[in-house]
Amino acid sequence: xxxxxxxxxxxxxxxxxxxxxxxxxxxxxxxxxxxxxxxxxxxxxxxxxxxxxxxxxxxxxxxxxxxxxxxxxxxxxxxxxxxxxxxxxxxxxxxxxxxxxxxxxxxxxxxx
Amino acid sequence: xxxxxxxxxxxxxxxxxxxxxxxxxxxxxxxxxxxxxxxxxxxxxxxxxxxxxxxxxxxxxxxxxxxxxxxxxxxxxxxxxxxxxxxxxxxxxxxxxxxxxxxxxxxxxxx
Lengths: 112, 111
Hints:
The structure holds two protein chains of two kinds.
Chain A: E1 3-6, E2 11-14, E3 19-21, E4 23-26, E5 32-38, E6 44-50, E7 56-59, E8 62-65, E9 75-77, E10 86-93, E11 101-102, E12 106-111
Parallel strand pairs in A: 2-12
Antiparallel strand pairs in A: 1-4, 3-9, 5-6, 5-10, 7-8, 8-9, 10-11, 10-12
Chain B: E1 5-7, E2 10-13, E3 19-24, E4 31-38, E5 42-50, E6 65-69, E7 75-79, E8 88-95, E9 100-102, E10 106-110
Parallel strand pairs in B: 2-10
Antiparallel strand pairs in B: 1-3, 3-7, 4-5, 4-8, 6-7, 8-9, 8-10
């Protein structure tokens, strides 16, 4: 079945550092890929998405590129802020199943 | 506009009791999902409703879990004879097209 693997956290960075959170997936067909973010005490919200190979999703300074050849969708940001501290979830939909599949989440902690 | 609303936000119950968790999706969204979020385990799919079709119950962990969706809108997740391993955050999401909109969840603690 479909699956998503994320790097384990927590990821701890200083403000203005470069961020990468790795995400790889296994799916049949051609899924859409997503990053969701969960701020403390809140529900998940969509951060960005990409629907086909080589597409780049971007939002709030975050970017991720759909790489079919490496089955990856790594999240990057050039300069993180304290307000980016949250849990980030990689997800896919529309591969072998219509049920969205999520990774375990990666906690990001940004220090001033 | 109004988002997905879940109630209660927190629920503490004794082992063996039944609990009901409520989800009020975004108006007009035909798809509704329940997930369970346990510490370090990510999101575990529980059940999926799409319009008037029969729900996909393939993620329910045991027959103590059930859910219904009345009138294609509000959904209730019921856990009977709760166990300590049921302690988790229960998340509801609705979708109109391809993006999920999540509620803030219900944190269930079974003592």
